[in-house]
Specification:
Blueprint (H helix, E strand, L loop, with lengths): L2 H16 L3 H10 L10 E10 L6 H22 L3 E10 L4 H13 L4 E4 L3 H14 L2 E4 L14 E3 L4 H16 L3 E7 L3 H17 L2 E8 L7 H9 L4 E5 L2 H14 L7 E2 L5 H7 L7 E4 L10 H11 L7 H20 L4 H9 L4 E2 L7 E4 L5 E2 L3 E6 L2 E4 L3
Parallel strand pairs: 1-2, 1-3, 3-4, 4-5, 6-7, 6-8, 8-9
Antiparallel strand pairs: 10-14, 11-12, 12-13, 14-15
Length: 393
């Protein structure tokens, strides 16, 4: 961790105990190389974390999210020289809605001020109502269905919502490729995927592109020959896909196997290196729009990647790990600014987050809009030689 970040994190814990005015003095002390002993700093800050650690969403999302949260937790707590620390009360929602609701209710009973995580929008949509009703911050690191944060003033998200991410990607790709006719395939049984489809439709109208066929799939399906045949029978020049990873990969693979030529690119939000590796050559030329890439030159990203690899047996992080890592750092900064662990004080501090450095987006500058939605520049990328690289407009 670089020196500036270390000082900032130590300031967080000092501010909780002795006030924000102590930070200037602390920076001076640390810069001179003397490490103060703050034995009077005591207490644990319990934070709830809800993750799909078992079930269908553990592999694509939950385990990476956990790794990102755990890395940020270790960094924050190791930088705090006194006795205070953040502790996780971690709950496995078992990749189900009922498990998510049960986890939120249990965590609220534990009197946590904030609950992090929740992989899918369809689950966060229900869970946020529980948090809002009980005055607890619900801070999702991954869900991105449009409009969810606007459902309450205790609701925040790290990932860009579909109404920000998808239009940015479509406009960038259309400007370069010049396509005028597209096919759309989306999962009608998933909230995120349906929201993505709606945003595709809106932005296509704006840029004068026609959807010549729209095909639906459903979560849990594994065979997509009917939808692929319809796409191949159309004169689409690109294929827009809005689906979760479990359905996205076989859909894209089966399309290429059926004869969809490489000259017709897949355009897929949130495509990760894991899916690219699973697809092999079938991913080549795909265009994606995302919140983070491993090659980003945002502040601290290289250190994050190195630390993540060291903590996870050389494994590379993915966007879900990066977003979860950033989430805890953003929350820690809010606790520092609030000078309190009270949920309402943290909520108010989060709402004022503006221009904080993270590993996300093009520049790393992260803010919340007036609804608690993440606001930063989306990354548009493409797959070249099996790697996700910057999209050359």
């Amino acid at each position: 961790m670089n020196g500036i970040r270390r000082i900032a994190l130590i300031c967080m814990i000092v501010s909780l105990v002795v006030g924000l005015s102590a930070c200037d003095e602390l920076v001076s002390i640390l810069s001179s190389g003397d490490m103060p002993q703050m034995d009077s700093v005591q207490g644990e800050i319990p934070i709830g974390v809800v993750l799909p650690l078992t079930g269908r969403d553990a592999g694509p999302y939950g385990l990476s999210m956990k790794n990102g949260f755990d890395l940020a937790l270790a960094e924050i707590n190791s930088a705090q020289l006194g006795g205070a620390s953040i502790t996780f009360i971690e709950m496995d929602n078992m990749s189900t809605l009922d498990g998510t609701v049960d986890a939120f209710n249990q965590l609220i009973a534990h009197d946590v001020p904030a609950i992090l995580g929740v992989a899918l929008s369809s689950r966060f949509r229900v869970a946020l109502e529980i948090a809002q009703e009980n005055g607890v911050v619900a801070f999702s690191s991954v869900s991105s269905e449009a409009g969810l944060s606007g459902r309450g003033d205790y609701i925040f998200r790290t990932g860009l919502a579909t109404n920000i991410l998808n239009p940015a990607g479509v406009k960038a790709s259309q400007a370069k490729l010049g396509y005028t006719k597209v096919a759309i395939i989306y999962d009608e049984a998933d909230a995120y995927s349906t929201s993505g489809y709606e945003q595709f439709s809106t932005v296509l109208d704006e840029v004068g592109v026609t959807a010549v066929t729209t095909q639906t799939i459903r979560k849990g399906e594994t065979e997509f020959s009917e939808q692929i045949a319809a796409v191949m029978a159309s004169d689409a020049e690109a294929i827009l896909i809005s689906a979760l990873a479990t359905e996205m990969v076989p859909l894209m693979s089966q399309g290429r196997e059926a004869g969809i030529p490489m000259s017709i690119p897949y355009i897929v939000p949130d495509l990760t290196a894991n899916e690219v590796a699973a697809l092999g050559d079938d991913a080549e030329g795909a265009i994606t729009f995302t919140n983070w890439t491993i090659t980003s030159d945002t502040p601290g990203n290289a250190d994050f990647v190195d630390s993540y690899r060291a903590a996870n047996n050389g494994m590379d992080p993915d966007p879900w790990a990066a977003q979860s890592y950033a989430t805890l750092h953003i929350l820690a900064a809010a606790i520092s600014n609030a000078g309190s662990t009270d949920a309402t004080a943290i909520r108010d501090a989060l709402a004022q987050t503006m221009g904080i450095d993270t590993v996300l987006g093009v520049s790393g500058q992260f803010s919340f809009d007036s609804n608690g939605e993440a606001s930063y520049d989306a990354i548009v990328a493409e797959v070249r030689d099996g790697e996700i690289v910057t999209f050359e407009e």
